[in-house]
Design brief:
It contains 15 helices and 22 strands. An 8-stranded parallel β-barrel has the order 1-2-3-13-14-15-16-17, surrounded by 9 helices. A 7-stranded mixed beta sheet has the order 4-7-6-10-9-8-12, with helices on one face. Strands 20-19-18-21-22 form a 5-stranded mixed beta sheet, sandwiched between helices. It has 473 residues and is an alpha/beta fold. The protein is 34% helix and 22% strand.
């Protein structure tokens, strides 16, 4: 059975060898994420080239995703780590580097004087809690946690909205790299408003970047501007790590479901991320709660589920992907949500109308217990395949598109299996094209014996008029 929910895996020191990359793809990875918070630009460049080379050798479309660092706050201190006791008062600011005082600064120390007395400060994804203590012109932190705090860990100030630039210097190098290697997706950290996305699109255009832009929802302000952000982005990531620090952690599942539903309605792909199989960083087996987390994301109808430290630095990267793959496949078969009732489109949108007709035909076949093996979609831009994906059918969508760029852009779309396809020169898809496409599916052993499929294509192929024909084959 084919997995419909896409898996994104983060490349790191434990997963960057050619052999491991191959095995990760074989285990179910569709997109590789390159986290620009870690490693050098040259390191990422080498690994992106490696992934592209291996994907080409394997004949499998694999997406590449650069996750820009953005204006992230991280701990900056003289030592690799410090032991912190509950009730202890720590120095907070650049003065920790004077005479090696106990405490830490941050990557944007200019904001420290603007903090208010009593304001909460959280470190390491909320594992450490502090309160700001003002003493004259100096700022200190009163620890509310006991533990070992390590250098370079993340730091959050819930509710604060500082005027940071949307891109930092390192991000511009990331854009240059994205253009050089034809990266498929760029994730933007700490998006606050749609103007952040406009700024990044403008800068990306300067670098001739064609990648799809993903807005990471991880701040309270982003939630307040959610609808406009979704409209402005190509896709959205539910970044539950920082989001669970910025808002009360018990609210995260509610917002996850809300964001996914809004993205489906708007026709934007959505990624559910962070700590999905966190315990497998160290242990060979997941917890029951982690399996439930993956199941819930599948029930929510997310396009993608993402692994971070599990595949970047964990002890069991391959097994982690295998667990996620098996879990997704099992629960995809159990989902019974009719998303069609939420989807709206203009009567002037011929492609959307054809997609709705095709999905309606599929549902009628299912109701009468007739088997549909899948959708076969011929598309110049990939839009029709995305349109069908939006309905979350329980069968694969085989998308035949003219370029590798379009093919890889579909690697994040639920249920879409893209192929680069050389079309005939005529202005319509011929029976010969359909036969050739179905032969590709058989030759690739995707379907052992092709039964009934729903074929969608345009009658004015090559003229950009969108899909206009649905037929049963």
């Amino acid at each position: 059975m084919l997995k419909l929910t896409k898996i994104i895996a983060t490349i790191g020191p434990v997963s960057d060898s050619p052999e491991t990359i191959r095995k990760l793809i074989e285990s179910g990875v569709n997109v590789f994420r390159f986290n620009f918070k870690h490693n050098s630009i040259d390191w990422h460049s080498d690994r992106i080239k490696r992934v592209n080379k291996i994907a080409l050798e394997m004949g499998v479309p694999i997406g590449t995703l650069i996750d820009l660092q953005g204006p992230e706050l991280r701990i900056n201190m003289p030592k690799d780590q410090i032991k912190v006791e509950e009730g202890e008062i720590l120095y907070f600011g650049e003065n920790v580097f004077e005479n090696n005082k106990k405490g830490f600064s941050i990557t944007h120390p200019d904001i420290i004087p603007h903090l208010k007395d009593g304001q909460p400060v959280l470190a390491d994804d909320g594992s450490f809690s502090f309160r700001v203590v003002k003493k004259g012109k100096s700022t200190f932190l009163a620890s509310q946690t006991t533990g070992v705090l390590k250098n370079r860990k993340t730091l959050n100030i819930p509710g604060a909205d500082f005027p940071f630039p949307v891109l930092i210097d390192r991000d511009f190098r990331g854009l240059e790299l994205a253009a050089r290697h034809d990266v498929d997706f760029i994730a933007l950290s700490f998006v606050r408003t749609q103007s952040d996305l406009r700024t990044v699109r403008k800068e990306a255009k300067k670098y001739k970047v064609n990648a799809k832009l993903i807005a990471k929802i991880e701040t309270e302000k982003a939630l307040g501007n959610l609808d406009k952000i979704i409209e402005s982005a190509d896709g959205v990531m539910v970044a539950r790590g920082d989001l669970g620090v910025e808002i009360p952690i018990e609210q995260v599942p509610f917002y996850q479901k809300m964001i996914i539903k809004k993205c489906i309605i708007k026709g934007k792909f959505v990624i559910t991320a962070t700590q999905m199989l966190q315990t497998m960083i160290e242990h060979p087996y997941p917890t029951r709660a982690e399996i439930s987390d993956i199941a819930n994301a599948v029930y929510d109808s997310t396009d993608c589920i993402m692994l971070s430290g599990e595949t970047a630095s964990g002890a069991h990267p391959l097994k982690t992907v295998e667990v996620m793959n098996k879990t997704a496949i099992f629960y995809e078969a159990k989902v019974d949500t009719d998303i069609r009732k939420y989807i709206q489109f203009s009567p002037n949108d011929s492609t959307a109308m054809i997609c709705d007709t095709a999905y309606g035909l599929y549902r009628e076949y299912v109701k009468t217990h007739q088997r549909i093996e899948g959708f076969v979609v011929f598309s110049q831009t990939g839009t029709t395949a995305k349109g069908i994906s939006r309905y979350r059918p329980k069968v694969p969508i085989f998308a035949f598109v003219p370029t590798n760029e379009i093919c890889e852009s579909l690697t994040v779309e639920f249920g879409v299996f893209p192929f680069t396809f050389a079309f005939s020169e005529a202005n319509e898809v011929s029976i010969a094209d359909i036969k050739r496409a179905t032969k590709i599916l058989k030759d690739n052993r995707i379907l052992k014996q092709l039964g009934t499929v729903i074929v969608i294509h345009g009658d004015q192929w090559g003229q950009g008029s969108g899909a206009t024909t649905v037929r049963i084959v």
